[in-house]
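Table 4 source record.
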Amino acid sequence: MTGSAGQASVEVIGGAMAVLLAGLVAFQLLGVGYAAVMADHAAEAAALAAATGGDPRGAAREAVPGWPAGAIDVSRRGGHLRVTLRPPSVLRILSGRLKITSEAVVATPANG
């Protein structure tokens, strides 16, 4: 009986580790998906602000409430706006390596 009880303990521990790993992967995928949606919102807000003469960087930061200030980067090159977000991560090794980027273009009418 001792041998089968020991094997069952190993199987339970192995199964628990597999469930934990699957949970971490699922949580990370949710974080990346959330960052993708928030990057799109921020890029749209930045484009609208740029089109109306506002501050695109401030508008992008306000469009993602609760997001860490250091995890968002807004760049502008002419009418092209790019928002980059670093999604939340349960593993520190991934936190700086994952980046989600969304772009928007602001077309200004030609002065006639």
